[in-house]
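the two lines:
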Amino acid sequence: MRVLFTCIILFASACMAHSQNEKNLAEKLGFDRNAKMLIIHADDMGLSQGTNSAVTEAFQKGGITSGSIMVPCPWFPEIAEFAKNNTQYDIGIHLTLTSEWDNYFFGGTSPAASIPNLLNQKGYFYPSVEEFARHANAAEVEKEIRAQIERALAFGIKPTHLDNHMGSILASPDYYQLLLKIGHEYKIPVLIPADMIAAISKPLLDMLSRDNIVINHLFMLNQASPNGKWGEPYMKFIENMQPGLNQIIVHLAKNNDETRAIMVNHPDFGAEWRQNDLDFVLSSEFKEALKKHNIHLVTWRQIGAVQYPEK
Amino acid sequence: MRVLFTCIILFASACMAHSQNEKNLAEKLGFDRNAKMLIIHADDMGLSQGTNSAVTEAFQKGGITSGSIMVPCPWFPEIAEFAKNNTQYDIGIHLTLTSEWDNYFFGGTSPAASIPNLLNQKGYFYPSVEEFARHANAAEVEKEIRAQIERALAFGIKPTHLDNHMGSILASPDYYQLLLKIGHEYKIPVLIPADMIAAISKPLLDMLSRDNIVINHLFMLNQASPNGKWGEPYMKFIENMQPGLNQIIVHLAKNNDETRAIMVNHPDFGAEWRQNDLDFVLSSEFKEALKKHNIHLVTWRQIGAVQYPEK
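prediction for all of em together
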C-alpha cells in the first residue's frame, strides 16, 4: 500500500514537473511564456472583387497577418491566383455553407444533387445559420467541406488554416468534430475560438481543444461604432489584450458600386463597415498601438508548424 | 397542253399577287412597307454588377430597346429580379457557352457531370468559340440551352427572344437548328442575323430563315473608334440604314473597379469600350440621328407577337 502511494506521489510530481517544463505555444514560437500573440485576420476573401482588392492591399501594406477564402464565391478564381503566386501571405479556407446577401448568391462546390439539404429551391445556400441548421445533415456538410478544400487545392492554394463563414459549423457539435477530423486528416489547423465556445458549452470546448491549439481570445466587431470612432473597440481590445493567442477578425472591402450592390439592405457588415475596417487596419494608430502594447503578430502558418511539425 | 400552260400561268400570277398583297413585317407592325426598323440591343446582362447597373440605366433613359441575360453569370439573380419586376422592358436570354475573361469565369447551368464536353478542367466553359467547337456535341449543347431557359423561367423572367454569347452556336449548323427547334417549342423568336449568316453560307441562311423572322442587317462594333469619335461607326450605320429589320448590338457597363478587374487584358469589349457604348446610347446625338433618319424603334416582343400570334 505504501509502495503504491509513493508511486502515485512520484508519478504526480513527474507530471507537474513535465507540465511546468513543457514549452507553451508562445515559447514554441520563440516568445516569452506570457507573450501577447495576435493574428489579424480578414474573412471573406473571394466574395467579390472589392473584397479581393481590399484584402490584397491590406496584406501588401502589413495591415493584416492572415485571411481566408470563400471557395464557392464568384471571385474565388482571382484570389486563388493571388494566393498561389504569393505564398508569403497566410491564407486559409473560409468554409462557406450560407449565402446571406439579397442579390448575390453562392451555391455548393459539390454537385447540387449530392447536397440537396444544404441548398434552397433556387440552388443556393440558405441565407441564415438557423435555416442551414434546420435542413443540414452531417453527411452533406462533410461532402461540401471536403469539396471546398479539394477545389482550393486544385487551384494551387496551400491553405494554412480552416475557418467558417458565419459560424454555421457551430450549429452542431457533430459538424465541429467533423471539421476537426478533416483538419487532422489534411494537417491543417482549425480555428477554435475558446472563449466563444466556452460560452456555449464548456464540455464542447474541452472536446474541441483536445489535440488542437485554440485561439484564447477572439475579437470581432458586432455593431458599428459611431462616426469617427470606428477603431475604438479594436483599440480597447488591444489595450486589454491578455497573454496567449488572440485573433482579431476584420471584414475588408472597398466601398464601391459593386460592394454597395452586394450589401444593399445590410448596414451591419456592409460596404461602409468594410471600408472602415480597411481604413482602420491600414492606420498608423493601429500599428502604433500594437507596438506600444508589445503585441507579437503571428500567423496560422506558425500555428500549423507547431501543431503538425511533421508536415 | 395549252390547258396545262394556262393553269401554270394562272397559278404563277396568283402567287405573285399573294406575295404583293401579303403584309411584310413592317406593315404587320403598323409601319410603311419600306420602314427602317431598329432594335437597339444590350448584350451581357447579368455578367456583372457594372453591366446590370449600366443596362438598367440605359433601359430607364430610353437608350436601348432590348437586352439579353447571361443565365450562368454571378449577377444573374439581380438582373432576373429586375426583369421580373419590369416587364415593360424587352429582355431575352443571351445563351452562354463560353467564358472569356481572365479572372472571372462561368460554368454550366446544368450539372457539370451532364455536360463534361462543354467544360474545361476547372469546371468552367471554354474561353473561345474555337475551343468550344472542338469539344462540344449537340446533345450537351441542347441540355445546357434548355437548362438556361428553364432557369430563367424559374426566376420569373418571361424571355422575349433568344440570342447567343460570342456566336458559339454558329460553330455548327446543327447547333443553330437545335436552337431554332427549341425557340419554336417555347415560342420565343431567335436572333438570326441574315447578312452575317449569308456571308458564311447562303443555304444555311435559307434553312434558318424558313419559318423565322430574320434581322436583315446587324451592326456591332468590332474595333474601338479613336478618342472622341466613338459614335462615328454607329452614326454611319444609322445614316445608311436600309428598310427592313435592323439591330445594333451594344456592350454596356460602368467603367469602374469591378468592370476593369473583369476585363483586364481585354481592351476590345473592355471597360472603357463599354462605358463609351453607354455614353453613346444615352447621347442626344444618337437620339436625334434616329429621329432625323425616320427610324422606327421596335422590340423583340413585337417580333414575337408577329411570329407567334397564338402565344
